[in-house]
Amino acid sequence: VPRLDEDECRRRLGNTRHLVLATVHPDRGVDAVPVVGAIDGSTVWIPVDTVKPKSTTRLRRLANIATDPRVCLLAEHYGDDWDQLWWVRAHGTAQEVAGHDLHGVRAALAARFDQYAMADSVSSAIAVQVTGWTGWSAR
Amino acid sequence: VPRLDEDECRRRLGNTRHLVLATVHPDRGVDAVPVVGAIDGSTVWIPVDTVKPKSTTRLRRLANIATDPRVCLLAEHYGDDWDQLWWVRAHGTAQEVAGHDLHGVRAALAARFDQYAMADSVSSAIAVQVTGWTGWSAR
Q: Is B87 left (phi over 0), alpha (psi -120 to 50) or beta?
């Protein structure tokens, strides 16, 4: 079974614009939500943005990580040709970041996503410190 | 904020071939893995197959649900046009199913995926009983 090593996991997740963030929910057990992100060393930055419509920026995912910081990030490729399938899972701990620390984060995100060009496009961010990697490839 | 109602959530998840399954992990908190599935009423069937390469069919996800059956399934659309984004989350409880109950499951999966045409292509299945839906759409 082809397993991906840590460097390859980091490279693939770093090249993927679109991830799934899984968090611990106190009652339902788990939540999962699509996110975008940018990787910097062993940290993955996930914006809480003002770009996509939302009723509040106090998102459920923020309440979840405040209660239990353990998270999992998934990057993957799916297609009808199953020989091309792969996925990378990053485990770690998450923390919300705001204020001054946000400047560099938004710049990193803006380099990947035009949607974050405006200074007020990101209201805070989730910093995931990755502590473990798992990667699978169909071949 | 456009929220999707339960019927629309069920329809979109049912039309999506490729889902993410999030489970409770006893130590790491959460796991997430891409899966394929077929929906039947309020049950989503996820195969444990012999098609994709794996070192064992005793997958981590099966150990996770045996310890804590609470799961979350995510269906979603991502693309560069963020006006088209949407996601649907199904919460529920999961159980492994094997033996006779598997015949109909494999037939339902084979109707969607050529890869499950062979009788021995599915070794068991995860049945997710959906108890709650959440759906978000960018517009």
A: beta
pLDDT at A1 over 80: no
Contact A31 B22 (CB under 8 A): yes
Task: Express as a percent the part of chain A with pLDDT over 90.
Answer: 89
What is the pLDDT at residue A100?
A: 83
- What is the SS3 string spanning B83-127? HHCEEEEEEEEEEEECHHHHHHHHHHHHHHCHHHCCHHHEEEEEE
Using a pLDDT cut of 70, give the percent of chain A over it.
Answer: 100
Mark out chain A residues that contact chain B at CB-CB < 8 A: 1-2, 18, 20, 22-25, 28-34, 51-55, 68, 70-74, 76, 78, 82, 85, 87, 89, 91, 115, 132, 138-139
Q: Which amino acid is at B126?
A: I
Per-chain mean pLDDT for chain A? 95
Question: Tell me, what DSSP letter sits at residue A67?
Answer: H
Q: Model pTM?
A: 0.96
Of the residues A28, A51, A54, A113, the best mutation for testing chain B's interface (the one with the most B CB atoms within 10 Å of its CB) is A28
Contact B132 A20 (CB under 8 A): no
Residue A96 pLDDT exceeds 80: yes
Q: Tally Cβ neighbours within 10 Å of residue B49.
A: 22
Are A22 and B72 in contact (CB < 8 Å)?
Answer: yes
Give the long-range contacts of residues B99-107, CB within 8 A, separation 24 or more.
B101/B125, B105/B38, B105/B45, B105/B47, B106/B47
